[in-house]
Queue: 4 jobs
Job 1
Amino acid sequence: MQQFQNIYIECSPEDAESLFDFVEREVEINELWDIDSEAVGTAKKETYGDGLRFTFVSLLDKNKEEVANIVLLHSPRGKIYVPNIVPNQLGRLTKSEYNKILQDFEQVILKPAISKWARPYEYTITKPNVGVEDIFPETVATALRRFSLTLYKANPFHPDAQERWRQFIIDAYSNNVEVSQGKLVGLMVEDLGWDIEYAKKLSYVYFEGLDLLKDFDNYAHQQDASFSQANVG
């Protein structure tokens, strides 16, 4: 499944400020990149007015028109990351277009800036494509693949198929899996070949099942606590 990529840089708070300076210097020496000063000024007033460092880096076309604005932000949790890329010439970016711009920014601006910055850091860029095994632990991924056999795709609500789907839900809950509905549907459609309408319906059952398991566990814990208190008394 294709996904929007993310970049994360972790460093000490006192080093974060200077990285932005190196990024902006790198932009100055690359003719197809620019700092969107107007967007920075607006954001200071309206969006990021909490004192955190940020900048808007613009990718330009050969006519020096803005193609997209890349937001680089120092978050309250200490990470420097790209929360968004805003298109200027298109209504919205596809995942491929978004990732291409992010990769260009990484290679042309960010990595040279980091090299000159020369401070301790941890760097992560997420994959452009992920599969079931990238999202789920091995046992959970195996349960989902067992459910996704061809014979079940024609009728995923057959009792035999539903038994496997319930096992997948139980395994996911037991392993504390966190996955959004959109990502689950995307994996089922793009990685496992499910019909999108079936994938959506099954995702509803998945999250309802997780809620039921969570409620049951909470109830069981309350009963255990009440029983323990009664024995103490």
Job 2
Amino acid sequence: MAKRVFGILVLLLTGCQSTSQESVVNYETQGNLQSHHSLACLSMTQIRSSYTPADLFSGLTSCVEQQQFDSAADMYLAAMSNGYFDTRRVVDRSAHQAVMVLRMNTFAPYDQDVLNLLLSEITQKTTDNSQVCGQLKNIGMPTYHPTYMIQHGMGAFTEQKHSNGLINNFDADLAWQEALKVVSNCPKS
């Protein structure tokens, strides 16, 4: 009886195999998660409001490779603040995963020890946050058009082809304050 049940389970599980790679098609639009500035490892004072999360995560990789975790934490907090702001202004909710995908792609190659060093720096900066909050406020809210995110969503394939992808009457000041509060626990100004 046990052999019969095992045989049935084997048949059922082999029938559940995923499709072969040959039949999977990955569609991407131009600009999806695209970085526009090739950045080196930057400290918070070198970060500009024109840098997208795609730009910042790319530069963050340089920081980690050079074991400059203080600057890596700066770039991470700026990227996440800008990304949060972008999720508030981009209409297509399916596009909001762009920042999560950028983060996963950036950190996937690193082992847990390296990630723990970065997490330690981020935790320190957001616990004693007066300096990082002041620096993020000085940089200011993003000045770029969030194409990297808009082109990541389903709307890039459907209804948004003729719009700019942004929410009408968007309250940028409120969204920026919210981004700083959520990411770095900054008090409202």
Job 3
Amino acid sequence: MKKAIAVLLSLALVFCTGIVVLADNTISSVEPPDNTASKNVTATYTPGAEPATYSVDVIWGDLQFEYKAPDKVWDPASHVYKDPENNLGEWIAAGDNTIEVKNHSSEPVVVSFAFGYAEGYGADDFTYSFGEEDSIELPAATPETTPDVKVELTLSAVSVIEEFEGPETIGTVTVTIAEPSEQ
């Protein structure tokens, strides 16, 4: 019984005295009557990263052409039809031959257009054009704008094309999207 009373008295003395709290090398004393201590909690804000994000739409037109060969000329001396001089025929657009690129990216992009001839065709047969520029830089998208470029593929005859069964692949258009180079 004496031990129990001694323990109770010891506990009573402990609870009646101030308690020292250690936090972050700062000493605070708990003061009666509330037996509390306070310390402000601080924080700093680090914004989340805004990584470069690329999202580009490529909208293809039909990219179909018809080659209209020149009308032959009858040669009364040889009794055969011949190709006319200075008439190479023409490439006629058979649909919408545009390529449109829309930049939804958070960064500017460089859009380049290229044409590759299919096997059996080359610059000796026809030339191609995408208009004034084969490459253009589009700025980053904003909430108000979606930068875009629209080009039209045209073909021009360089020589008379031999007859072929159609439709036949005469080439491939490639659109390349790249980051602008640092100047």
Job 4
Amino acid sequence: MGWKLLKELQQNPKLRREFAEIFTHEIPAILLQDKRVRVAILRAIVREAATKEDIEKVGETIEKTREHVEKVRQELKQEILRVRQELSQEISKIRQELVKEIKALDEKYTHRIEELNQRVAKLEGQFSLFVKLFIAFNVPLLTAVIGILLKMIFMP
């Protein structure tokens, strides 16, 4: 019959709740009357309760954990500083390379611009010479043509 009752309690949640409500009102009265039951309950509670020794062990564990965390924090801090230094050195190296390349390009294009300026100056000189030669050859020719035309007009 007891097994049947247990099986019924396991299968029926509503029956289980009602049984628990009734049983919780009756149990304290039963427990308080029987000294052996009270002693057994107290022993079970004491067995589960934390002792001063347990608390000290937990405190030691917490302290060790705290020390470990502090050690890891210091290691991490050192690692961050090391990485920062490496990064700073790398940035500095890249900056120097960039400045070097910019200077090389500047020299290259400055030289190229100077060459172009020299060529333009030569072209200007040649053009000026060309204009002078044009004038030098064409002025006498034009003077002769104008003279001939004037002679034809005024002396027919």
